[in-house]
TrEMBL record:
It comes from Dromaius novaehollandiae (Emu). Belongs to the dienelactone hydrolase family. It is found in: Cytoplasm, Cytosol. This is Carboxymethylenebutenolidase homolog. Pfam families: DLH.
Length: 245
């Protein structure tokens, strides 16, 4: 079960030493990292960061992975200039920190980013992925935003989710079997409620032996036992986007 003394288990994990292939841009009031494929593409994916913010190299690595698969990828600063969480911060202050960074209050920023992708990048089909805090944000957008085609929520913190399950778009939910913060009972309940209420395609998948953050916070070369699951999670993410975008 979750450790209540540490309200989010977000160990920064293996921080990648990664420069990124894209560039930082200003999109109205939001800073963002953008990477575009060498060829023309009308498909785009919004990448929603975790509590460590839009500049985490690991998240930019995933954005570049999407670009390598033919997508325009954008990772905006959904904290809009507010400071990201730091590993040195006191976990006792986490809930207060999160009050001004609500993963369900991102609609204005999402609309700005969608407009940029459509008008400046020529995107016609747009999806969204997110990790941890961003995974909860994906659930919110899949309930609310009619302009997206599909979503992938990676270990989205279920206690941050709306108690609503009538998703508008196909959504893939990635969870880790040994996630200290998202008990498997919560995942089972989520799956049950989706089965009862959701009219679009969805999938809930639990990856054996994995912990919170495994898709984007673990390096294959130093976690050999986890490598097959890291690769599987990333491949499943790409396959879901390819199927519905």
């Amino acid at each position: 079960m979750a450790n209540e003394a540490k309200p989010c288990p977000c160990d920064i994990g293996d921080r990648f030493n990664y420069e990124g292939c894209g560039q930082e841009v200003q999109v109205e009031h939001i800073k963002a990292y953008v990477c575009k494929p060498s060829g023309k593409s009308d498909k785009a994916v919004i990448v929603i960061h975790d509590i460590f913010g839009w500049q985490l190299p690991n998240t930019r690595y995933i954005a570049d992975l999407l670009t390598a698969n033919g997508y325009i990828a954008i990772c905006p600063d959904f904290f809009v200039g507010q400071e990201a969480w730091k590993p040195s911060n006191d976990w006792a202050s986490f809930d207060d920190w999160r009050k001004t960074r609500d993963s369900s209050k991102i609609d204005k920023e999402a609309d700005v980013v969608l407009k940029y992708l459509q008008e400046q990048c020529g995107a016609k089909k747009i999806g969204v992925i997110g990790f941890c805090w961003g995974g909860a944000a994906v659930h919110h957008l899949m309930l609310k935003n009619p302009h997206l085609k599909a979503g992938v929520s990676s270990y989205g913190v279920i206690r941050f989710f709306h108690d609503a399950y009538n998703l508008l778009h196909p959504t893939f939910f990635i969870f880790a079997e040994k996630d200290d913060f998202i008990p498997l009972e919560q995942v089972a309940l989520l799956e049950q409620k989706l089965k009862e209420n959701c009219k679009v395609d969805y999938e809930v998948k639990i990856y054996p032996g994995q912990t919170h953050g495994f898709v984007h916070r673990k390096r294959e070369d130093i976690s050999p036992q986890d490598k097959p699951y890291i690769e599987e999670g990333r491949k499943d993410m790409i396959n879901w986007l390819n199927k519905y975008i």
